[in-house]
Amino acid sequence: MDQKDKTKIQYIRERMLEQQGEARIVRKIIMIVMLVIVVVAACVGIGGYLYVQSALKPADPDNQKIQEVEIPIGSSVGNISTILADQGIIKNAKIFKYYIKFKNESGFQAGSYKLAPSMTLPEIIKSLKTGKVVMEAQLKITIPEGKQLIQIAHIIAEKTDKDPEDVFKQLNDKNFINKLRAKYPDLLTDEIYGKNILYPLEGYLFPATYDFYEEKPSLELIVTEMLKKTDGVLAEYKDEMNEKQFSNHKLLTLASLIEEEATAKVDRDMISSVFFNRMKIDMPLQTDPTVLYAKGQHQDKVFYKDLEVNSPYNTYKNKGLTPGPIANAGTTSIEAALNPATSDYLYFLATSTGEVVYAKTLDQHNQNKAKFITNKK
């Protein structure tokens, strides 16, 4: 073998060694790439799993503040998901949409819903299907009919561990009231600041039981819910109010007088008829609860000396309605104010049993007083 052949063999051998080295490098690179792909895929899978798991949990477990969410008629599951996500009720619209499909849920209703970021997806779905809040209320406040603002302040204070005087003071704070007026401008009109008004919100906090889903709701939230209820109730009577030229303020004022005079056994529309009959002939309403309101104190009886109290709220001294409501009124009294019975009565009085007797003349009324009640001193 000559030198030339040896050189050629040597070259081939070197090339083979080089190719073997390159093959090992390629194999290593492929192994590293495959390992990276596996790791990335695993990370993506784990990340995706954790992401979906997180999206299936409440948007904010600690936020129990109820929000009103409006679901329009004809909304698809996708539309509903987007609305809920935009308002922070759920974390992810797409995940919620797929969750609904996976669970084969349907039958969602259009309407206004009270939902909170702390609600679970099953709770939200149940609410959307039933139209009801499925969360357990953290606080319930019941405001009975015929309560005055100062009494309501005490009820709120007792339920929220606040000082009654502080609550009452805030309920009459102009800045506080103006915030509420911005929310309900059609309800809280300039009439609440009318001449001789004692307390602007008197009569506007509707008697009902209110559920709150926060442990410590603010006074603004509590009062806002009460005003919302009043606004909703009055909205049902708007046509009648317009027809009979009743403003919110006038209706609530008359209804409060009926509420305060009524007993459990009385037909409020009859009391309403007496008030209307008196106003028609320009006769003072002469209703005792207005005297007590003017005095600012509770009494079991009203005496003749009490009738002399000097106040725009005293309907023995002033004709027509009081400057504003003297208490809150329920729907029965509101309806009675709008639809008084037809009668010729100008007088009424409640007996010791709660029955109410009526009279057309003062002589008849005095006879009823002598018969049914003890004379005033």
Automatic annotation (TrEMBL):
Record-annotated membrane-spanning stretches: 29-52
Membrane topology designation: Single-pass membrane protein
InterPro entries named among the record's database cross-references: MLTG-like
Location within or outside the cell: Cell membrane
Key word Transmembrane present: yes
EC number: 4.2.2.29
Keyword presence, Magnesium: no
Residues the record marks as site: Important for catalytic activity: 261
Entry keywords, A to Z: Cell membrane, Cell wall biogenesis/degradation, Lyase, Membrane, Transmembrane, Transmembrane helix
Top-level lineage group: Bacteria
Catalysed reaction equations from the record: a peptidoglycan chain = a peptidoglycan chain with N-acetyl-1,6-anhydromuramyl-[peptide] at the reducing end + a peptidoglycan chain with N-acetylglucosamine at the non-reducing end
HAMAP family per UniProt: MltG
Stated family: Belongs to the transglycosylase MltG family.
Job description of the protein: Functions as a peptidoglycan terminase that cleaves nascent peptidoglycan strands endolytically to terminate their elongation.
PANTHER family given in the database record: ENDOLYTIC MUREIN TRANSGLYCOSYLASE
Protein name according to UniProt: Endolytic murein transglycosylase
Gene: mltG
